Amino acid sequence: MDTHKFAERVAGYATLTAVSIAIDDFLWPAVILWQGAIAGGITMFWVALLANLIMLWAYDKLKRDILCFEALRELTEQEPTSFGKRLLVKFIRAGKVPAFIAISFYDPFLSVLYMRKGAGRYQMENRDWGYFALAMIIACTSWTFFWQIIIVIGKVLWGLV
Fold it and tell me: Which of 15, 20, 157, 158 has its CA 20 to 30 A from that of 5?
């Protein structure tokens, strides 16, 4: 891999990580604490939806494989030559649904990129929007539940409940 691709991927992952930390680790608990689980969960759904739509739009506009998903897709669409590549392709093909669910807990944006068909196709299709909606439900419900539990535990430990 050349240094330009490496730098693009570092920048891509750094941006994704910064957005995820800002929303999931700082904003989400603050809003849940302030508004409660239901109203805060709804507010954060809209915030997460906007952030994920912006990231999808930017990713598709850039038309660059900054997160390595296109390289993985390309790998699965061709006949792997080495043992290591055959093994990787086997794992990727075997676990699409469990991987989608696991990635959705972390980030709907990544889960949609993971589930897209066809390497180098930087556009959302109808099936992608379905995956995106399901990933948003999984992520937002789990983050709201997670932070609500942490907040309740924190209040109990500090004697606020």
Answer: 20
What is the rounded CA–CA span in Å between residue 114 and residue 103? Answer: 8
Kindly list the distances between the CA atom of residue 68 and the CA atoms of 6, 86, 102, in Å, as whole numbers in the listed order: 10, 18, 18
Domains of the chain: total: 1
Residues of the chain with pLDDT under 50: none
Q: What is the pLDDT of residues 92-113, one digit of tens each?
A: 666 778 778 887 888 898 888 8
Q: Residues near 71 by Cβ (< 8 Å), separated by ≥ 6?
A: 65, 119
Answering whether pTM is above 0.90, one says no
- By residue range, what is the domain housing residue 97? 3-157
Average model confidence (pLDDT) across the chain: 83
